[in-house]
Amino acid sequence: MVEYGLLAGAALAAGFVDAVVGGGGLIQIPALFSAMSGTPPATLLGTNKVASVFGTSAAAVNYARRTRIAWSTVAPAAIAAFLFAFLGAYTVTRIPPDFLRGLLPFVLLAVAAYTFYRKDLGSVHAPLHTGTKERVLAVLVGAGIGFYDGFFGPGTGSFLVFLFVRSFGFDFLGASAAAKVVNVACNVAAILLFGFTGHIIWQLGLMMAVCQVVGSVLGTRLALKHGSEFVRRLFLVVVVLLIIKTGYDAWLK
Q1: Rounded to whole angstroms, how far apart are CA atoms 90 and 45?
Q2: Spatial separation of the C-alpha atoms in residues 104 and 242, rounded to whole Å
Q3: CB of 7 closer than 8 Å to CB of 208
Q4: Which of 37, 66, 141, 152 has its CA 20 to 30 A from that of 177?
Q5: For the whole prediction, is pTM greater than 0.85?
Q6: Is the separation of the CB atoms in 175 and 77 below 8 Å?
């Protein structure tokens, strides 16, 4: 029961962070591996996705009620992410993602440095593309992120926020809202795969899902109240923590 209490707290915190900038897995996945150390990793990852999809869906709904989601960009990206998450998950059964472990901290460092030095990045919502160019770029971003999430995964939500800001000209608040929709698509694809192979502890996943939703509601309310600058600052904090975590996993563990 102590383990379930710790996992409930981790899910609440993960839902809060993930609702604002992504990166909730930085909290929830290590908690699952620590509390359920005798459980196969695939089952823990599948259970994590069940909790995450509810929290992310709640965030997406709350954002949609209070801010405009650019569906002309988000819908193509979400569809592509859903399809390519399957491809990524299949690929990881054939090619180990070990080479990404060493590369990821440097990619995250570049993202953090670019965001830090571009003080105006994401401060104003000024979409850069329309029409066919917008849809094609959205499909490319969705496909790339979906494949990455299925193949490896750490930092997916944060990468989405950054790409919506940098590639489409969204502010950080709009980018966070858009990222939630695409994240839901990735999570649904993962749940279908893990569920089909029996790698989900449904009772635990649903218990954590309730906590994720509570954290998600709190996170979205705070983000909507304080706006893009608050989201930008938390984004930088989460990316720095991801750099530390992925660097440790890649080079010191």
Answers
A1: 15
A2: 9
A3: yes
A4: 152
A5: yes
A6: no
